[in-house]
Design goal:
Blueprint (H helix, E strand, L loop, with lengths): L2 H6 L3 E4 L4 H12 L7 E5 L7 E4 L2 E4 L1 E2 L10 E4 L3 H9 L7 E4 L8 E2 L14 E4 L3 H17 L1 E10 L5 H16 L21 H19 L7 E6 L6 E9 L5 H9 L4 E3 L17 E8 L6 E8 L1 H21 L2
Parallel strand pairs: 1-2, 1-6, 2-5, 6-7, 7-9, 8-9, 10-11, 13-14
Antiparallel strand pairs: 3-4, 10-12, 12-15, 14-15
Helix pairs in contact: 2-8, 4-6
């Protein structure tokens, strides 16, 4: 890693460049004005030689290996957990500056841009990107707590197929086509028919719930009221949906709650005639706030409907983490 180059225009490597997250990272780097030196796209041997377009040029995908990462200043790991486990099993060293979006459980420093202490960042380190559902839950409950104090919260998370990567999206599409053609469905990624259905996915849901809960505690501290979380697998391709119920210490009105969220740039608060949905927010930034419901006879208790593009949210935080690292290095 070249620290001087890191200050100005780092070489960036995307491990898993053909994954949904990898493509999102590539798009945001291209469109967002990231001060890039060279982009190195990396994949498993199966996809080596794949041609991908970036900034009008054609880039050749290389095989994931220590030698192909040697000239990388910032490495984004956006591959599937199974590829990550294979990399770990090989004993190969990670680049000196790695940002991990895989949710594989490898230890590192969890960082949420705009909330975590930037003093924890340095030119060398292994940084973990929070689960996109963790980002939404942490930001929402943190903002409500700042404004009104938080007593408790319970959240149902509707997970999209894209949380399982390309294979999850492909299986949902194939199941839908099969059903519309009056054919049976195959289930390799999910535990059963997801198309036109909702699955409890108990084992996978418990893993996700535990991961979000632990990340919440890591980001907010053990004394912050930890929410009750239930995850369900929904028949949607992209974007998380959240049905959130909270009890606040104060007793604001609905419009005060909406105003508190609208005052934070992380949120997009919609009007009553413009309800956001998982489909409508694909490709957009921010946490979209739809209906905010108060309950008669229960002051301080509210129900909120939230949606966010999971791929965009995760990739945006990873890139902001990289930018914060560059600023920290410049400030030395």
């Amino acid at each position: 890693m070249n620290e001087e180059r890191l200050r100005r225009s780092p070489n960036v490597g995307i491990v898993g460049s053909s994954s949904l997250l990898g493509k999102e990272l590539k798009e945001l780097i291209e469109d967002g004005g990231f001060p890039l030196g060279k982009l190195i796209l990396l994949e498993t041997e199966e996809y080596a030689g794949l041609l991908q377009e970036f900034a009008g040029d054609i880039e050749i995908t290389q095989i994931i290996a220590p030698e192909t990462l040697k000239d990388v200043d910032i490495a984004f790991f956006a591959c599937g957990p199974e590829i990550m486990q294979s990399y770990l099993s090989s004993g190969a060293a990670f680049p000196e500056l790695t940002i991990d979006l895989t949710q594989s459980g490898h230890p590192g420093t969890l960082f949420l841009s705009g909330l975590s202490d930037s003093n924890r960042l340095g030119a060398r380190g292994y940084y973990l990107n929070p689960h996109p559902a963790s980002i939404v839950i942490v930001r929402t409950l943190s903002r409500l707590h700042q404004a009104f104090g938080l007593r408790s919260a319970a959240i149902t998370v509707l997970e999209p197929a894209s949380d399982r990567g390309n294979a999850g999206v492909d299986e949902l599409q194939e199941q839908t086509v099969s059903l519309l053609n009056f054919q049976g469905v195959e289930s390799k990624v999910f535990s059963g028919q997801l198309s036109f259905n909702v699955l409890p996915e108990s084992r996978a849901s418990m893993r996700t719930e535990g991961q979000i809960s632990q990340q919440f505690a890591d980001l907010m501290g053990e004394t912050f009221p930890r929410p009750i979380i239930q995850a369900l697998q929904a028949p949607i391709f992209n974007s998380h949906g959240f049905s959130l119920f909270t009890q606040l210490l104060q007793e604001p009105g609905v419009e005060e709650v909406r105003a508190a969220l609208a005052s934070d740039s992380a949120f997009v608060v919609h009007g009553n005639d413009d309800e956001p949905s998982p489909v409508s927010v694909v490709g957009t930034h921010g946490i979209h706030v739809g209906r905010v419901q108060g309950f008669s006879g229960q002051p301080g208790t509210f129900g909120l409907w939230l949606v966010a593009d999971n791929m965009r949210l995760a990739a945006s935080n990873a890139i902001r983490t990289a930018e914060n690292i560059m600023l920290a290095v410049i400030g030395r």
